[in-house]
Amino acid sequence: MPEGLRGTVIFDLDGTLVDSAPDLADALDTLLEERGHKALGLDHARRLIGHGVAELVRKGLEARGETLEGLDLAQAVQRFLKHYTQFLSRKSTPYPGAAEALTELRFSGWRLVVCTNKLEASARGLLQDLGLLPAFALVAGPDTFGVAKPDPAHLLRCLPGQDLSKHPAIMVGDSEVDVAAAQAAKLPVIAATWGYARVPLADLRPDSLVNSLSDVPSAVERLSA
Ligand SMILES: O=C(O)COP(=O)(O)O
Ligand SMILES: [Mg+2]
User: At residue 8, what are phi and psi to the nearest 5 degrees?
Assistant: First the structure.
């Protein structure tokens, strides 16, 4: 951990920092329509986000009666990504208070990283388009270290050489996958209620439950005290 830094705050991306569902939904609908299916729409797509792109495509197609596996699924994912690259930040917006919360945390001496099940290139592109990329020391997708949430290793690989007894690490995420990964890694977790969780987050017993990104810096202070 570089001199003077207090620890690391690990942010999830989709549903936590950025409302990216509208663009993911449009890319999925474009894929569905070109395969002869009816579009699924935003509300349905939102419920499929959090487990990575292959899962989004697999479940989206399944909802329209098409079951794909192996190479066929991989090809559909490539096609989806081709569309998504065009849509990346067309409708996606940072959640209110994102830039301010990141600035406040950095000012207080926190190293910030993104740990997402979005592919690293998509995550970087989206953060860049929205002006948030410079805040982060690291952006780790499932393809960065070859491991994905809920595997705790995805989080722990974002903390190289960090002595957690001196420099804490705290996870902030919107989904059951984030809470599970943090709990398995034995890291405190702040659950973001504005995202795409499919279950009531309170049931997962996060260390803190917040209703706005502007509440994250104080929750981080409380959990690291
Ligand atoms: O792309 C996804 O499925 C989810 O990405 P996230 O881990 O940033 O929520
Ligand atoms: Mg998320």
Answer: -125, 135
Interface ipTM above 0.90: yes
Question: How does pLDDT run across 1-17, given as a tens digit for each residue?
Answer: 878 899 999 999 999 99
Q: What share of the chain has pLDDT > 70, as a percent?
A: 100
Cα→Cα distances 4→108, 109, 163, 218, Å? 10, 7, 14, 20
> What's the domain range around 141?
7-19+93-224
Testing ligand 1's pocket by substitution, the residue of 10, 12, 14, 59 carrying the most ligand atoms inside 8 A of its CB is: 14
Q: Tell me phi and psi for residue 96, to 5 degrees.
A: -55, 135
Ligand nearest to the CA of 54: 1
- Which domain-ending residue is among 62, 87, 112? 87
Number of domains within the chain: 2
What is the pTM for the complete model shown?
0.97
Q: Which ligand is nearest to the CA of 173?
A: 2
- Residue 1 in any domain: the answer is no
119 lines ligand 1 (CB under 6 A): no
CA pair distance 78, 112, nearest whole angstrom: 30
Which atom of ligand 1 sits closest to the CA of residue 178?
7
In this structure, are 52 and 147 located in the same domain?
no
DSSP structural state of residue 174? S
